[in-house]
Request: fold
Amino acid sequence: MTVTETAEELLKGAAAQGSVLGLSRIRALLERMGDPQEKLRIIHISGTNGKGSFGAMLDSVLCSAGYTVGSFSSPAITSVTDCFRINGEEISYEELCSVLADIAPVWESLEEKPTEFEVLTAAAFELFLRKGCSLALMECGMGGDLDSTNVITSPLLSVITNIQRDHMGFLGNTAAEIASHKAGIIKQGRPVVFGGSSDAEAVKVISTTAAGMSSELTLTDLSRLSNISFGLSGTSFSFAGFGRLELSLIGEYQPHNAANVLTAVEVLRKEGVTIPDDAVRLGLASVKWHGRFELLKSSPLVLFDGSHNPDGIHSAAKTIAAFFPDTKPALVIGVMADKEYGLYADILGGLIDCVFTVTPDNPRSLDCRKLAETFAQKGISANAYPVLSEGVAAAYSYAAERKIPLIGLGSLYMYREFVSALGSVGQQKDVS
Reply:
């Protein structure tokens, strides 16, 4: 077998493990690999929403400051290699297979085999070490305390972007319960940034945890954020201490994410990381990130946003209202069954012309017919399409005929299939 074939077979075996919480397997794996995570300067990122955008922005800023930066994020948006980036660029499949093949004998020798996400996390640490990354951004997959990334003993900085209701079956039903899991990434004597200062319950939990770990806590001060303006080409805002800034990403929620980044920059500077103001400006102005109100086509206008939980859907609704005050777009939406999808019709209903529900290609997906029913019960026209590509084609034709925008919304697990289906319809040139 070739290196690629070997790596693929072994990764399939790890995937068969499913999702199993706990750190014993990855700790055993990393120990036998020589603990590569202990040889990296790591910024550890947790939070309910905004982790990916935060990581992409900070990555771009740090690269603009001259650092070699490795980034690990999930879920994979386009392919498994999309989880791994060096200086903002996705690694090649051959690079990933090479690392996986090298560490495969180690994980195969373990009595308790690691899960797929644990293998990918270990591969990220090893890859970033081999590539000589001066800084590494590691994003939690879910939660914090039991996430496989939480083997980092002394991060350069821990970041918790916010606390919202999501993954309640694993993390709890209250802000305090969810915050207690996210706060698990706070480490002894190491600084932490929290971007959810408006949630008193979460702030209390995280403040108490930080104090118990002698970790300096910095809360993102959103009162420093002002003069926000949106457009399909990007976002402009002012942030006290940095002045007027341009951000290439769009979405009502992105200035908050940028405020978290700027707060993190200030803390990193105290930790000895040199980040000039010019690098901040260039990094924010040039950052690229898929699936967050990403403009995919121009005629008809097609955007995709990976909002999938109530907080994200609320933010998406605000963005739709701000961008299209005089037009109601068509909507394609697909979510996982564990989300509070019954709320989405109330949140989006008054902003949408017609809904096309789809079933993303994932075993946890909600059946599109159930999702359509929730919209129909609120008097919103909804059409269910079990085959996602057919739903996208129907929605695209509907939007093109009526000359209205089309919004793709929901799980990032449907992004790749959505983009692929979009490429098969119409003749308009992509603008992304």
